Each structure stands twice: as structure tokens, then as C-alpha cells.
Amino acid sequence: MTRIALEKELQILKNLLSDMAKIVDETVNGAILAVDKLNPELAKKVVEFDDQVDYYENMVSQTALEIIALQQPVAKDLRFIITAIDIAKNLERIADQSVNIAFRVLDIYNTRKKPIPQCQVTIIEMANEALYMLQSAINAFITEDVKKAYSVIEYDDIVDRFQRDNIEQIKDCMKGNPELLDIGIDYIIVVQNLERVGDLATNIAEGVIFTIEGKSPKIEIEKAKEIKEVVLKDLPIFDLLKKHAHLVLECAERLSLALEAYNKKDFTKLEEIAKHIFEIEKEADQLKRNIRGHVPKGVILPVERFELFLYLKEQDAIADVAEEVLNWLSFKHLEIPKTIFKMMEELLSKSIEALKFLEDLIVYSADFLLYRNENSRNEAKEIVRNIRYSQYLAEEFGNKIKKEIFSKINDPLNLFYTLKLVELILGIPHHAENTADLMRAMIAK
Q: H helices of 111-180, where?
């Protein structure tokens, strides 16, 4: 009677995982199609699926723990339950990759960026290969097919090769076309997300092998020890990133003083504030060089160097925006209507709000990357959501200001100058969101 009850509970658990896998498969399919067609509506649907996937992960974990507590399974049954929890986590992370891709699609569409046809990239081919790995891993789990699980692991090299080739092609294209830098970064993030879909599908396949054969393929204990030792040694890298984020925030926060001095025509004070901001920005640049020099070649890190440096580049771009705003203010003084100026101050405040999360994002992400603390990962994901929401609020308010500018300012020069200032300020939350998305991509492994 006990065995019948256990089998019934195991089937419920398997059904939950199967249903979760179908939803995740749909999200990956949707994300790929959204990239291919640059379809914002489809991208939004992918984002909406994220909560449903999180619900299923919680249900799988809860059900699995209840079975262990009440049924006391052993051998293969126990391995299946342990693997089920792990597979649910991997499926949830795959859904995270889809959401990241969907946000890139929305970014490309909303900022009116155009695809890069002159760059010979094979993102859709890579996407289809990653999707094939996911579907094969899910099928191997449902059918308990060990051979198919092993084939998924072997297939991972193909997706990795696509990643290397695509990133190199995109980087080469950006070098030849500097105007494609922003969209190039978007596509690189998409490529990285797709590669991780393949990695996570491999994890699922390994779970299938563990359940059926009772062994974990590709485990290298000595290498794992080496990674842990090096990671502990490289903890200062994340501390330096945190200090850099603090300097970036300082640069942006002082812009409110600069804007006030500009409005009051206090050019002496504006010059003093500018000098101070430039000094902070110079310190941030020096720290950026220190971070780059702090990662010697041959050292194993919990993330790729390219990812780390791309993140640092985006975070540093925020300080560069502050410098651009100051330069723009110094070019010419124009009378800005009082109502618009107050809205401009509010826009700056809303834009800076996204930066206040960056230090905590680095702390929680580092804790997960170094010590695999799942609670820290969840905290980091929540911070990313807060940054995205702050960016959304700033963007919405920016559009409101633009409408006000068009209705209140008739002089062409004043109109252009004020609109440009708004666009420059909006660069702050834009780069903050990019920074958050890059960090989310790193912790979604």
C-alpha cells in the first residue's frame, strides 16, 4: 500500500515537472520568435510567463520535500526526487534567459534600433540548436532515455561554438560601425542567454543520467576545488566593482546641483561642480583600470572575463553620461520655462533612483557567484526588477516632459537644446538597466 502511495506521489511530481517544462519550452520558443521578428507584443508575453514558471518551481520543491518527509523514499526514487528539485531550478533559470532575451527585444524596438543585416550573425540558427537541446533534455527526462541525455551533453559543444563565432562577428561589426555599439551589446546579451539555455539543458540531461544510473557525468572534483580557491582569492574584484558603482552614483547625484546652478545662471558654481564631477569620474576611470588589471590571465573566475568587463563598461558609461550632461550645459545657456525646469529636476531624480540599487546588486550577485547562495540570487533578481521599473518610470516621465517641451517651446534652438538635455539624462537609467541585465545574465547560469 505504501509503494502504491509513493508511486502516485512520484507521478504527481513528474506531471508537475512536465507541465513546467512545457511552459518553459513555450517561453524559449516565444523569445526566439520575438528576436527573429522583433515583435514587442510577443516579448511582453514571454515576460508575463516568468511568474507562472516561478510558481511551478515552488510547487515542485514543496511536493518533493513532502514526499521525502512522508514517504521516506530510497535509491532511484530518492535520486529522482532530488533531481526533480534540481531540474525545476534549471527550468526556472532557462525561463530567466527567455525573459532576458525578451527585454533585449523590447529595448531594440522601443529605442528604434534597427537590426544589423550587414553583420553576418547566425543568432536564429544558434537559437534553434539551443531549443533542440532543451526539447531533447525534456524528452529524455519524460522517457527516461539515457542515450538521449548523453547526446544532449555532447551537443553542447555546437552551441558553444555558435556563441564564440557570433560574439566575434558582432564585435568585428561594431568595430567597423561604431553607431551599432548599442544594438551590438543587445545582440551579444541575446547570444549569451542562448548559450546558457544550452548549458542548463545539459544540466537537466545530467540529472536524468544521475536518476537512472546513479552517477553524475562530467564531475571533476579537483577542478571544482581549484575554482573555489581561486574564486575566494578574487573576491576583491567584486569589492572594487562595488566601489566603482558608488563613484558612479556620486557623479550622477551631483548633476542636480549642476542643473540648479545652470538655471540660476551661477556659472562659477556650475564650473566648480563640473570640476568636482570630473575628478570623481577620473577616479572611477582609474578604478576601472585597476579592476581590469586585477584579473590576470589564466585565473579561473565564476564568470567569463568578457562578461565582467562588459558589465564594467556599462556601469562606467553612467559616469560618462554625467560628463556629457555637464558638457551640454556648458555649451550654451538658454532660458528653460519654469514648469519644464521643475519637471527636468524630477526626471533627473527619477533617473538617479535606478543607480541606488547597483551596490546591493553587486553584493548579492557576488555572494551567489562565489558561494552559490540561492537566497542572494533571489535578492539580486528582485533588485534587477526594481532597476527595470525605475528605468520604466523615468522613460515614461521623459516622454511626458517631451510633450510639454513641444507645447511650451517654439524657438527651434531652444527646442532642440532642451530635448537633447532630456535624452542625455535618460541615458542614466538606460545604462543602469543594461548594467542590471548583464548582471542578471551572469547569475542566471
A: 123-143, 146-176
Confidence of residue 246 (pLDDT cuts 50, 70, 90): very high
Contacts 24+ apart (CB under 8 A), 268-272: 270/329, 270/330
User: Tens of pLDDT along 43-64?
Assistant: 999 999 889 999 999 999 899 8
Comparing CA positions, the residue from 274, 250, 252, 249 lying closest to residue 262 is 274
Lowest pLDDT segment from 150-164, 170-184, 200-214: 170-184
Phi, psi of 113 (to 5 degrees): -75, 145
C-alpha dihedral sign at 262, 267, 269, 274:
positive
Q: Please report the domains of the chain, with CATH numbers, ordered by start residue.
A: 2-218 (1.20.58.220), 226-443 (1.20.58.220)
> d(Cα 293, Cα 258) in Å, to the nearest integer?
33
CA proximity to 192, closest of 223, 219, 167: 167
Instruction: List the grid coordinates of 193.
Output: 542567454
330 contacts 405 by C-beta, under 8 angstroms: no
| Claim: this prediction has a pTM higher than 0.90 | no
Residue 300 pLDDT more than 70?
no
Q: Take residue 297 and report the three cell numbers written for it.
A: 590571465
* C-beta separation of 34 from 46 below 8 A: yes
Instruction: Count Cβ atoms below 10 Å from residue 233 Cβ, excluding itself.
Output: 10
Residue 183 grid cell = 544594438
C-alpha cell at 369: 557567484
Give the Cα separation of 322 and 326 in Å (integer).
6
| CA R_g for the chain | 25
Give the cell for residue 125. Answer: 540558427
Among candidate residues 395, 367, 381, the one with its CA nearest the CA of residue 436: 381
Name the grid cell of 413.
534652438
Asked if residue 162 lies in contact with residue 126, where contact means CB atoms within 8 angstroms, the answer is yes
- Tell whether the torsion through CA atoms of 76, 77, 78 and 81 is positive or negative: positive
